[in-house]
């Protein structure tokens, strides 16, 4: 799966990137953990740069 860099990622795309179940992302959000997330309407969206930074894969480092 090729992940787009020019838009916010869905929970499914973040789960693919981090190689974990989507359910884990929802649990982390509920617990206040995990990568930074924004709720847009009923949907969770993640900034790809923030996800990489949270995962320790910051390209600037």
Automatic annotation (TrEMBL):
InterPro entries xrefs: DNA-bd_dom_put_sf, HTH_17
A molecular function (GO) term: DNA binding
Keywords assigned by UniProt, alphabetized: DNA-binding
SUPFAM superfamilies with a match to the protein in the record: Putative DNA-binding domain
Taxonomy, superkingdom: Bacteria
Domain spans labelled Helix-turn-helix: 10-55
Pfam families according to UniProt: HTH_17
Protein name as annotated: DNA-binding protein
